[in-house]
Amino acid sequence: MYDFAYQKPSTLADAVAALAADGDAKALAGGQTLIPVLKQRLNKPSTVIDLSKLGLTGITVTGDSVTIGAMATHAAVAASADVKRAIPALAALAVGIGDIQVRNRGTIGGSMANNDPSACYPSAVLALGATITTNKRAIAADDYFQGMFTTALEPGEVITSVSFPIPAKAAYVKFKNPASRYAMVGVFVATGPKGVRVAVTGAGQGGVFRHTAAEAALASGFSAAAVAGVSIAADNMNSDIHASAPYRAHLVGVITRRAVTAAG
Fold first, then answer.
1. Is there a smaller number of Cβ atoms within 10 Å at the N or the C end of the chain?
2. 221-246 CB burial, b ≥16 within 10 A, e <16
3. Could you count the other beta carbons within 10 Å of the beta carbon of residue 5?
4. CB 5 within 8 A of CB 48
5. Domain check: are 65 and 93 in the same one?
6. If we measure between CA atoms, which residue out of 51, 92, 50, 87 comes closest to residue 68?
7. Which helix (H) or strand (E) holds 47?
8. pTM score, two decimals?
9. Are residues 195 and 137 in the same domain?
10. 124-155 residue pLDDT tens
């Protein structure tokens, strides 16, 4: 780990100002990605801006949406009675992330800002048609994800919350790496105010993506049988020591059917 300065601002304005003042500064949310990267000397920020004193941890249900503060931990989302009641699939997703240590440190905002191609939250955000709110603007999920580890966030922009429309039905199923519990393939399906949406994580080379062929099939009838014949090309699938591209393409179909069945 290289030397760096450390700041822990107590207001969002101060955090934004600190990031704007130093182009080589990095924001620290839960640190579940940044700290290992620093330990491996893969990044050399001049300053680490700790966001843990900013608050941004609330979870509220208003009308037809659930809004989760960016610094809410995975454990908080998993345990929230409001989330369990309004979007049980989202609570179930959160409880399946990593292990208990990761869930008690990792945050939804940190996961969204990092946009790891195997992370679970991006699939929920995309499938539910959520809105990512920052210190500057509100960004629709379809505009937010722009490729592996790439988002619409601008330099110095800080996520403050994520708002999820409450679906009529939803479920998340993942085929997890047995060691890390990252999704080798994860599928979140939802039907509700945003229509039928299916998002896949862990499989694509470009990160999370919408499975439009499955969406079209499910729009005609929301059942596992409706997507039984839907396949996806292996061309743009990830291939690594854990699973080949053709195997991941096959898993997308299997996990999609399981998610639809789980949604009911």
1. C
2. ebeeebbeebebebeebbeeebbebe
3. 12
4. yes
5. yes
6. 87
7. strand 47-50
8. 0.95
9. yes
10. 999 999 999 999 999 999 999 999 999 999 99
